[in-house]
């Protein structure tokens, strides 16, 4: 089986596992994961943080965003064509549904990714070597390859697999956090 087929199989398996968990479970585990994130030096020292607004099945970030947006400068991704642009977050009233129904800031003042000190990254799966597998469009890899920021992947424990089939364009994380460990 080639890498493309292996990734397809992993995505299918993880999607199946996600269906076994209620939104209540996701919220509880997300709180544990984000609490571990808050304890890291990378988070404590970061002034500008890019984070995503979660869709169902991902580590839920809405309460975290609301908690920190007045203390830290937060940026959320906006999909433009085949790329992610980072827009400042100014509160929940400044959001609209974008591509794939993901909430995005309405502002049109993208920041250069080099101005971001920490990027919180979702993923379908991660491994112990901090490799990440996304949904297959390459949005985050294109963004991350231009960044010197610390990259922290967050996921549920069941998304941590033995080996992510990585490719030359894949950008590994500096840290991966689940509800039970920091790698």
What is the averaged pLDDT score?
A: 95
> How much strand content do the residues show?
15-25%
Give, in order, the helices and strands.
HHHEHEEEEEEEHEEE
- Global Rg: 15 Å
Strand order of the largest sheet: 3-2-1-6-9-11
CATH class equals Alpha Beta
Number of helices: 5
The figure for the number of domains is 1
User: What is the general shape?
Assistant: globular
Helix content: 25-40%
Low-confidence stretches: none
Largest sheet: 6 strands, mixed
Oligomer: single chain
The assigned structural class equals: alpha/beta
**End-to-end gap:** 29 Å
CATH architecture: 3-Layer(aba) Sandwich
What features would you describe in this structure?
The structure is a single chain. The chain is an alpha/beta fold and 183 residues long. The protein has one domain: NagB/RpiA/CoA transferase-like (Rossmann fold). It has helices spanning 3-18, 23-38, 41-45, 62-68, 139-144; strands spanning 48-50, 73-80, 83-88, 95-97, 103-105, 118-121, 125-127, 132-133, 150-154, 160-161, 175-177. 34% of the residues are buried.
Report a brief summary of the structure.
By secondary structure, the protein is of the alpha/beta class. It contains five helices and eleven strands, in the order αααβαβββββββαβββ. The model has no long low-confidence stretch (mean pLDDT 95).
């Amino acid at each position: 089986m080639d890498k493309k087929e292996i990734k397809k199989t992993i995505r299918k398996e993880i999607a199946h596992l996600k269906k076994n968990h209620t939104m209540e479970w996701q919220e509880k585990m997300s709180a544990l994961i984000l609490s571990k994130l808050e304890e890291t030096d990378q988070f404590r020292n970061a002034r500008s943080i890019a984070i995503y607004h979660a869709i169902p099945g991902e580590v839920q970030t809405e309460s975290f965003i609301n908690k920190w947006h007045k203390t830290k400068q937060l940026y959320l991704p906006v999909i433009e064509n085949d790329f992610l642009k980072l827009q400042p977050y100014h509160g929940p009233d400044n959001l609209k549904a974008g591509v794939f129904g993901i909430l995005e800031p309405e502002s049109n003042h993208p920041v250069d990714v080099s101005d971001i000190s920490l990027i919180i990254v979702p993923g379908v799966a991660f491994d112990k070597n901090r490799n990440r597998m996304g949904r297959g469009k390459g949005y985050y890899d294109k963004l991350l390859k231009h960044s010197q920021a610390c990259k922290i992947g967050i996921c549920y424990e069941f998304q941590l697999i033995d080996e992510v089939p990585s490719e030359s364009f894949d950008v590994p994380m500096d840290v991966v956090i689940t509800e039970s460990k920091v790698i």
